[in-house]
From TrEMBL:
It comes from Nocardioides conyzicola. Its EC number is 2.7.1.25. Pathway: Sulfur metabolism; hydrogen sulfide biosynthesis; sulfite from sulfate: step 2/3. Coiled coil: none annotated. This is Adenylyl-sulfate kinase. It is an enzyme of class 2 (transferase). Pfam families: APS_kinase (PF01583), LMWPc (PF01451). The gene is cysC. It catalyses: adenosine 5'-phosphosulfate + ATP = 3'-phosphoadenylyl sulfate + ADP + H(+). Signal peptide: none annotated. The lineage of its organism: Bacteria, Bacillati, Actinomycetota, Actinomycetes, Propionibacteriales. Residues 424-588 form the Phosphotyrosine protein phosphatase I domain.
Length: 597
């Protein structure tokens, strides 16, 4: 049985070349990889092997539609289908079809939006065929934008037709020029070709409108902010601080693609091998590019150790019309290792984690970063300022007017708030929702009493459904509902529904904020919230608002450690600590009678 030909989806440049080869537009070049020709096809090694065995490869479009069979070796193209989709497909004619329809016209290659002066000169040149040279990697307008602008120019000329030609850039000006001359000559046949005269005049309004839409000012463009650096360098911390500022300013929506978070969802199951890291970064790049395509802001903070993959992300984003802004968080390895927030460097040094970036796996320093920040010996705010300044200088994002830490007036002069009779909803969170958070929920309910306009519930970051409360912690409660308590995991709906989330440890808070950064004003550790409560006379909802405005990183010293399976003494200590904190927090939250004056 003959070996089936493998399928391969070529790069955008190769797809354009394929279309021109199949159309006969590159003649005398008729196949890929002819000696000295820039029209090449690079197959991955595994595809080469299969293609050589089968004698050919089947090239497919990004959706898997077979376009052509290409002999291997030989590079000879046998078309299988014409490309059928894409904007203005009807205008992509082969040289033969174009000559059938438009022979006798003067051919004008067009690579940019035509200006008033250029159109005035062309208006006197008789019947024209405007050849819009659109192709991957060519500067300026997108393919669709250039065709729209050329059609608008044709409307302003006495007699002009438009044909689109997917002439991609091969990364070398001379090569591109020579290839362009050849392609245009094939379309023109015996007809004359004239160049567009040089001019610096403005475009006519109908064309300028298309250009403006295509090339928005940086501030109106989608933006991908990409933090790269070693583990512990400060990528997530800076990215989060920046997102807080964006959310506070309120002018843009923002999506976080943090390294750790992506690996829990989009890239679950991937390892830290070079190949898997590349896959991980390309996935992040793909999502970020889509966000930027729609004008959004994506903040990515993976290690992204390889230059080539970072370049691919840049290309994906720019192809989608977004701007790519690279921040190198250049904190030296020694400092990252000294911080060793997650204890990973120590493990890597002991050889317990293979391929650890900086220790046993490389980190390629970027040479194309828009800004480089070393966070050692600096505050987070100072490091963030460097990023914000570079963003503002580039015209991408100006957060200088964001109400950073809007200094609220002291409690005594805060205006009387509009009364709000809805019950205040408080959610307590710990890991499994069987020890600390149920204790908080049930004890808080007792402290508040039956008449308080407040509800308490609880959930776990890694909670199973329907487990009973831990017996050791339950024994320390005299609440009657402790027997009927059942655990549940935190969900987005639960978080949306409540006014305040109080967690046992800072890691729980971080877990929630990684996935729901916009909830940053209502998620605190219990210890952190107790500190804020002690600082102010505000009560009820005002206290929650005040805490949201004055929040900072949660101090790990205020965490309530997990007593699970650590014996009765640990359970007793945990219950004592929770009681002390709840005695501060619950009366203040439940008390709406003492509104500030
Ligand atoms: N072998 C190895 N090397 C590097 N990092 C490791 C490794 N194993 C686990 N971790 C943890 O995973 C986080 C990095 O994941 P990323 O997805 O950002 O890495 S990569 O971009 O795909 O290289 C990284 O998180 P950050 O500290 O936030 O960077 C580490 O906590
Ligand atoms: N100037 C600073 N900027 C950012 N992080 C800092 C700074 N100074 C100290 N740090 C600390 O360094 C650690 C960086 O961790 P993280 O942001 O998770 O890094 P990464 O995401 O790169 O692994 C945090 O504990 C943070 O508090």
């Amino acid at each position: 049985m003959p070996t089936p030909a493998p399928q391969y989806c070529p790069t955008p440049r190769e797809l354009d070349d394929l279309e021109l080869l199949a159309a006969g537009a590159l003649a005398p070049v008729v196949a890929f990889d002819e000696p000295g020709s820039p029209v090449t096809l690079t197959l991955p090694p595994d595809v080469v092997a299969a293609a050589e065995a089968a004698g050919s490869v089947e090239l497919v479009d990004p959706e898997g539609l077979p376009l052509a069979r290409v002999s291997v070796p030989g590079g000879v193209v046998t078309p299988l289908t014409d490309a059928q989709y894409g904007p203005f497909r009807r205008l992509y004619l082969t040289p033969a079809r174009s000559r059938e329809q438009y022979a006798g016209r003067t051919v004008v290659p067009v690579v940019d939006a035509l200006t008033e002066d250029e159109i005035a000169v062309l208006a006197g040149a008789g019947p024209l065929l405007l050849l819009a040279l659109v192709g991957h990697g060519t500067p300026g307008l997108s393919a669709t934008g250039l065709i729209r602008a050329t059609l608008a120019a044709a409307d302003l000329l006495p007699d002009a037709a438009v044909v689109a030609v997917p002439l991609a850039s091969h990364g070398n000006g001379d090569v591109d020029h020579a290839l362009g001359l050849q392609v245009v000559a094939n379309y023109a046949g015996p007809d004359p070709v004239i160049g567009v005269p040089d001019s610096t005049s403005p475009c006519p309004p109908s064309i300028q409108a298309i250009v403006d839409q295509e090339l928005p000012e940086p501030a109106d463009q989608g933006l991908v902010l990409f933090f790269t650096g070693l583990s512990g360098s400060g990528k997530s911390t800076l990215a989060r601080a920046l997102m807080d500022r964006v959310l506070e300013q309120g002018a843009r929506s923002v999506t976080s693609l943090d390294g750790d978070v992506v690996r829990r969802h989009l890239s679950a199951g991937l390892t830290f091998s070079k190949q898997d890291r590349e896959t991980n970064i390309r996935r992040i790049g793909w999502v970020a590019a889509e966000i930027s395509r729609h004008g959004g802001l994506a903040v990515c903070s993976p290690i992204a150790p390889f230059d080539e993959t970072r370049q691919q992300v840049r290309e994906m984003v720019e192809d989608a019309g977004g701007a790519f802004f690279l921040v190198h968080v250049a904190t030296p390895l020694e400092e990252c290792e000294r911080r060793d927030r997650k204890g990973l460097y120590a493990k890597a040094r002991r050889g317990e984690i293979p391929e650890f970036t900086g220790i046993s796996s490389p980190y390629e320093e970027p040479e194309d970063a828009d800004v480089r920040v070393d966070t050692s010996g600096r505050t987070i705010e100072a490091a963030l300022d460097d990023v914000l300044e570079a963003l503002a200088d580039g015209g991408y994002l100006d957060l200088s007017d964001s109400p950073v830490v809007e200094q609220r007036a002291p409690a005594s002069v805060v205006q009387t708030p509009v009364p709000d009779d809805r019950p205040l909803k408080v959610l307590f969170v710990c890991t499994a929702n069987i020890c600390r958070s149920p204790y908080m929920e049930l004890h808080a309910r007792q402290l508040a009493g039956p008449d308080a306009n407040i509800t308490f519930s609880s959930a776990g970051t890694h909670g199973f459904r329907d487990s009973a409360m831990d017996s050791e912690m339950a024994a320390l409660l005299d609440a009657t509902d402790r027997e009927s308590f059942r655990s549940r995991p935190v969900t987005a709906a639960l978080l949306r529904d409540v006014d305040l989330v109080l967690t046992a440890e800072h890691t729980h808070r971080q877990f929630i904020l990684d996935d729901h950064p916009a909830a940053f004003r209502k998620v605190f550790t219990l210890g952190q919230f107790a500190e804020v409560t002690r600082d102010t006379d505000l009560r009820g909802r005002d206290l929650v608002t005040y805490a949201g405005e004055h929040r900072g990183p949660a101090d790990t010293a205020l965490d309530v450690p997990d007593p699970y399976r650590r014996g009765p003494e640990a359970a007793r200590a945990c219950a004592d600590q929770l009681q002390e904190l709840l005695r501060v927090v619950v009366p203040a939250l439940a008390d709406t009678s003492r509104l500030p004056t």
